[in-house]
Amino acid sequence: MSDEQVCEFPKENASPEEIRELLCSARVIAVVGLSDKPDRDSFRVASYLKEHGYRIIPVNPNVSDVLGLPAYDRLEAIPEPVDVVTIFRRPEAVPPIVDDAIRIGAKAVWMQLGIVHNAAAEVARQAGLTVVMNRCMMQEHRRLSQQGGCSEPPPS
User: Fold this and answer.
1) Contact 130/107 with Cβ under 8 angstroms?
2) What is the per-residue DSSP string for the chain?
3) Taking the domains of the chain in order of start, what are their residue ranges?
């Protein structure tokens, strides 16, 4: 494995305006790799997003429920439309998740802080999805809120 594959940097990322639009318009967020352990980043970020009005859908084949919500073993098992697929998995696991996100008609793929996969990101962009890499959704939401942007997703 080359150094670039081990430690990629985003070649292209969503602009601040695209991130704002995504956070302000999204309602349903599938969290791939959501752990049921409260000390994990995935749990903390999903808890925060749930508290701020987003509908969270856990995706993890190793748990039955997280945050009082049923967990699905894969994206394609989710019985409703998903706006954003946020990923808490190692970079090498990203390509099939992106493929599934495209298949279910998600509008965006968000790779959390420390997660970058440029080839998968390009596949998602070519399919019309917004792509965010190496950014924490909770931190971006807090930053947006401090700047007077949307503090809650739009009402249903």
Assistant:
1) yes
2) --HHHHS---SS---HHHHHHHHHH--EEEEET--S-TTSHHHHHHHHHHHTTPEEEEE-TT-SEETTEE-BSSGGG-SS--SEEEE-S-GGGHHHHHHHHHHHT-SEEEEPTT---HHHHHHHHHTT-EEE-S--HHHHHHHHHHTTS-SSPPP-
3) 14-145
Condensed to tens digits (0 to 9), the pLDDT of residues 20-69 reads 999 999 999 999 999 999 999 999 999 999 999 999 999 999 999 999 99
* CATH classification code of 14-145: 3.40.50.720
Q: pTM for the whole thing?
A: 0.91
Nearest residue to 77 via CA among 97, 96, 105, 104? 104
